[in-house]
Amino acid sequence: MSELIGYIFIVIGLSFDFFGCLGLVRFPDVYNRLQASTKSVTLGTCSILFGLFLIKGMSAPGIKAILCIIFIILTSPVSAHALARGAHKSGVRLWDKSICDRYEEEKR
Question: In 27-100, which residue ranges form alpha helices assigned H by DSSP?
Fold first, then answer.
């Protein structure tokens, strides 16, 4: 039963990764693309690794998958924020149809 649930998590993770890659191609600016890639990595890859953990159990690959999940959850949002902040400080413009710019509002 846990093996079936593991495969379901892997399929869900693959779909998140697929749509995240699609977002990298389709979204108009660096900030939207960064958001798509961060969600893809955090939700998709962690779901795949959790599915692997459910399939393998408490063996060496399962424990390594849990450690990778913890590492991704801790580092992915922080790195995305640092990249977005650096892009904004270096002058990368938002998409023309963006509604608000929170970073610019904080400068004032």
Answer: 30-39, 46-56, 60-89
What's the pTM value of the predicted model, to 2 decimals? 0.81
Q: Which residues contact 108 (CB under 8 A, 6 or more apart)?
A: none
CA dist 80 and 77 (Å) reads 5
Please tell me the predicted confidence (pLDDT) of residue 4.
95
What residues of the chain score a pLDDT lower than 70?
96, 98-108
Pair of tokens at residue 61? 């690959």
Residue 52's contacts (CB-CB under 8 Å, 6 or more residues apart) are: 6, 10, 61, 62, 65
